[in-house]
Amino acid sequence: MTSQPLAPDEPVIRAREETHGEAEAPLLTEHHADRVVATLNRLDHRNAINKATIDALHDLCAELEQRPKTLIITGAGPHFAGGADIAELRDRRAAEAKQGINLTAFQRIHALPMPVIAALSGYALGGGAELAYAADIRIASPTLKIGNPEPGLGIIAAAGATLRLPEIIGHARAAELLLTGRTLTAEEALAYGLITSITDNPLAEAHAIADRIAKLEPRAVQHTKTVLHTPKQDQPKIIGELQAELFDSDAKMRRMTAFLERKTR
Question: Does residue 241 carry a catalytic annotation?
């Protein structure tokens, strides 16, 4: 299901229905013309990510793959996500581990065509941290506590931390965090380069970033993200191909002509 174009001030809010007896939907989605805000919505569980949340994220990805928009991910209340749902994890066995239930969803989020912005506050632990790592841009409130304590629960961080955390903060720092289960404060996360800013209102800042993205040519933004996600050895070829497509586009001619006309006034 996809949304129709809307004015930026005319959001549509949708609730993905919970199927495991909870009163609230696990994910709320607010659709604007150029962005979607997805709010993890399990307040009584510190927004712990359960299977219903994963299913809702897959549904949202299916929409955004067909109709690309910037995605802002945040959490209801004081926390982003306190982790994966431990009650569910305790009951899973080897077969479920091999399915990579959370990893598959987070990889799909990471690969979305347009930028993904994580607006973080409070706990972003375990699976919550790994969902944040799947974003392209992370901003946080001063209350942030982020990290991967999975080894203390007898498991590994298997939903993307070992893939993306070394790319974000470097191998040595990632190894130290993942092997010790240490949690970072907002200030530490900023110093490590895990987040790009600390603000009292991360959701408002996420919208400000989305506003800047919305002023750019969408295809150029998408191609930039594609290059960023391409291995370095393959980038020279893909850069040439994508730039060639943009050079012949109507958007490039229109935007450059408008720039030159403004310059001569």
Answer: no
